[in-house]
Write a structure and sequence with these properties.
Blueprint lengths: L3 H17 L32 E11 L5 E8 L9 E7 L5 E8 L7 E9 L15 E8 L6 E8 L7 E2 L13 E9 L4 E8 L4 E7 L6 E7 L8 E9 L8 E8 L9 E9 L4 E3 L5 E2 L7 E5 L9 E6 L16 E2 L6 E8 L3 E8 L6 E8 L6 E5 L7 E9 L10 E7 L6 E7 L4 E8 L11 E5 L8 E8 L2 E6 L4 E6 L8 E7 L6 E9 L22 H6 L1
Parallel strand pairs: 1-20
Antiparallel strand pairs: 1-2, 2-3, 3-4, 5-6, 6-7, 7-8, 9-10, 10-11, 11-12, 13-14, 14-15, 15-16, 15-17, 18-19, 19-21, 21-22, 23-34, 24-33, 25-30, 25-34, 26-27, 26-33, 27-28, 28-29, 30-31, 31-32
The chain binds 2-acetamido-2-deoxy-beta-D-glucopyranose (NAG) (12 copies).
């Protein structure tokens, strides 16, 4: 969560929100999710976005005992800018099809806000909250006190797999008398049989590590501080074991989000491979590794409950504090979207060393129809008119194959998504000789803001495999591009006045010994099937609510 911006936004909320959010519910419903209209032209169809209101950081991500993924998120249910923060909630079996659930955590007193945090399972009843069950869930979050003068860490427990929480009567569980102290991420450390939590002293550039036998009584263990890029704040730490490709050595990953002060402006995530012994994290080196070369990838969180030797899964908030409160999706009564779920593991990239791979998780599961397949495009171009694809969402990939050596690294592969109505476009491409990949969202005209910068690029090193790859997902107002299977990735939102509906994918100057294989699929909307006759997604409406009855 962000600090003063939220306070500012909170103050502006009454005036701004009342003007903008005529259809936002008031008061906040407690027994049922807010309804959402997911059919608007800017509303992503395979990404998670809130039914209405404003969303930021993913929170509390865990897998329950039935294998269901739970995603909570920073949620302002009464406005379209940051503020009045609750924990919104959604669940999914496949990480693409999300069921909106009732709000999970509410502030109790005026001015209080439930800032970011995490959730764990307590199968052994270490907390004592669960006399009769092994599927107990404990959430740990930051309470921003009513005065806004202090941030403390609190816990809440759930008997019903994370749908309903009871706040612990002895809260707070960690308090440091600090104003900028937040975003607890907890996990069970098997070797020391202990709970561990990381909390950011944001403006001191410190990640403090605490341990506990019971999730209630926490003991300070160590500080990790002033490492990598510091920007103006550290936020949303994660620490987890991360598989390393081609190695059985247990590696850990510390992931920190910084805002403001990212190299591309505003918000970004960085990570540190290293080792953790239960109390201290030691990074392998002093290098700051940036997680994404787009501008809309912040506050990533990793799911709790994936075995340590398996690829991990993360979701980030796909926006940027520089402009998130101004993006034009208020016209569709929501603001912000999550990134695609990403599969993550460490690899040893040629010449670079440790690199966190981030690639869409099981994207094949939402393929609808193959629109293009050509294993031998050469220096050709394929055009796709996807105006008839209802979701407006596509997955594409291009592999340059048969590269024989460095001298064969020539030419480029580009993509353009454009609007046949307005001529607006989002473009990008990859250049083999320099290894540079770029994305340009500047030819969309639905949003003008000095911080909403246009062009992004980054370079990667050819690994000698004979293959150079680019792939991506476009979904109405967000594009995510991946190089070489996720060694580099870029997440960018964009806001066209008219929907993009035409794609060109082309290769030029490719060495005669090489070729290009391309494929494009349409993606099936995961929201459209949830709409009722009025086009509204009600989510999990299991309890009666007067407001919902009115809606129907
Ligand atoms: C639960 O108890 C088992 C047996 O002592 C132990 O191996 C495991 O690490 C514990 N897990 C948690 C989350 O408490
Ligand atoms: C869980 O902890 C509570 C409080 O310590 C205790 O009363 C209860 O017996 C425990 N249940 C189990 C199954 O260990
Ligand atoms: C850890 O960092 C916090 C926040 O800056 C500071 O108050 C505390 O003294 C530090 N502890 C140690 C042991 O350095
Ligand atoms: C963990 O590492 C720290 C710093 O290197 C060290 O002081 C501490 O003794 C280690 N703890 C264990 C259990 O090895
Ligand atoms: C990465 O691979 C290089 C070349 O094989 C090797 O020298 C280096 O030690 C490896 N680094 C890691 C972190 O495994
Ligand atoms: C693949 O692309 C090439 C070059 O543009 C073209 O000649 C060929 O017909 C295409 N093949 C298929 C199966 O579309
Ligand atoms: C194509 O690649 C081959 C093999 O690396 C190289 O010998 C040749 O010079 C390249 N062709 C051109 C036109 O540069
Ligand atoms: C891709 O765009 C770049 C930059 O405009 C250009 O230099 C290159 O020739 C283009 N490649 C293709 C395949 O269109
Ligand atoms: C692609 O263009 C390059 C550079 O003009 C040329 O060397 C190569 O032969 C062309 N490839 C094909 C398959 O035509
Ligand atoms: C591109 O390469 C990847 C990895 O080898 C493969 O899974 C994928 O099917 C290839 N795509 C095309 C269009 O050939
Ligand atoms: C709906 O929510 C209830 C808890 O309020 C939960 O038990 C149930 O599993 C949820 N159903 C679906 C389909 O999400
Ligand atoms: C499944 C079950 O019996 N759950 C109960 C466990 O205990 C809590 C607290 O007493 C009850 O609220 C649950 O219903």
């Amino acid at each position: 969560m962000i600090r003063s911006l939220v306070l500012l936004a909170g103050a502006l909320l009454l005036s701004v929100a009342s003007a903008q959010t005529s259809t936002v519910a008031e008061p906040v419903p407690s027994g049922t999710p807010l309804p959402g209209y997911y059919a608007g032209p800017l509303r992503p169809q395979v990404h998670y976005s809130p039914p209405q209101g404003f969303m930021n950081d993913p929170n509390g991500m865990f897998i329950d005992v039935d294998g269901l993924y739970h995603l909570y998120y920073q949620f302002n249910p009464t406005g379209l800018v940051a503020g009045n923060v609750h924990w919104g909630h959604a669940t999914s079996e496949d990480l693409y099809t999300w069921t909106n659930q009732k709000i999970a955590l509410f502030p109790d007193r005026p001015g209080e806000q439930i800032f970011s945090g995490s959730a764990v399972l307590d199968p052994n009843n270490t907390s004592g909250f669960f006399p009769n069950q092994t599927n107990g869930v404990v959430a740990i979050y930051t309470l921003s006190t009513g005065s806004g003068q202090e941030q403390v860490q609190e816990i809440a427990y759930s008997y019903d797999n994370g749908y309903t929480f009871t706040k612990y009567a002895g809260n707070p569980v960690i308090s440091a008398g600090a104003k900028e102290f937040r975003d607890p991420k907890a996990f069970w450390h098997e070797e020391t049989e202990s709970w561990v939590v990381l909390v950011a002293f944001s403006q001191e550039f410190v990640i403090s590590i605490y341990t506990s036998p019971n999730l209630i009584d926490w003991t300070f263990a160590s500080n990790f501080s002033n490492a990598g890029l510091i920007g103006l704040q550290y936020e949303c730490p994660n620490l987890l074991q991360m598989p390393m490709e081609g190695s059985h050595e247990p590696m850990w990953l510390l992931y920190i989000s910084i805002n403001p002060g990212a190299p591309y402006g505003g918000s970004i995530g960085e990570y540190f491979p290293g080792h953790f012994n239960g109390t201290h994290f030691t990074a392998v080196d002093a290098v700051a590794r940036i997680a994404d070369f787009g501008k809309d990838n912040y506050a990533a969180q990793f799911f709790y409950g994936i075995p340590a030797n398996e690829n991990q899964i993360s979701i980030a908030w796909a926006s940027n504090w520089q402009y998130t409160n101004n993006v034009p999706t208020d016209s569709e009564n929501f603001r912000s979207v999550m990134s695609l779920p990403r599969y993550n593991y460490l690899t040893n990239a040629t010449r670079i060393g440790y690199q966190l791979v981030s690639v869409p998780y099981n994207i094949e599961s939402i393929f609808e129809a193959q629109l293009v397949s050509n294993d031998s495009l050469g220096n050709g171009t394929v055009f796709v008119d996807y105006s008839s694809i209802e979701s407006g969402a596509l997955y594409f990939e291009a592999n340059v194959t048969g590269l024989s050596d460095m001298a064969s690294l020539q030419g480029s592969v580009n993509f353009t998504f454009s609007s046949s109505v307005s001529g607006e476009s989002v473009r990008g491409g990859t250049d083999l000789l320099s290894g540079t990949t770029w994305v340009d969202r500047g030819e969309t005209r639905g949003f003008d803001n000095p911080y909403f910068t246009d062009k992004f690029s980054n370079s990667a090193v050819y690994d000698g495999s004979g293959l150079w790859r680019i792939s991506g997902v476009i979904d109405r107002s967000i594009i995510e591009v991946f190089v070489n299977g996720g060694e580099e990735s870029a997440t960018n939102t964009f806001y066209p006045n008219s929907p993009l509906d035409t794609m060109a994918l082309s290769a030029r100057g490719i060495n005669a010994t090489a070729d290009v294989a391309v494929a494009v699929w349409s993606l099936r909307s995961t929201w459209a099937p949830q709409q009722n006759a009025e086009g509204v997604v009600l989510g999990n409406v299991t309890q009666s609510n007067s407001r919902m009855r009115r809606m129907r």
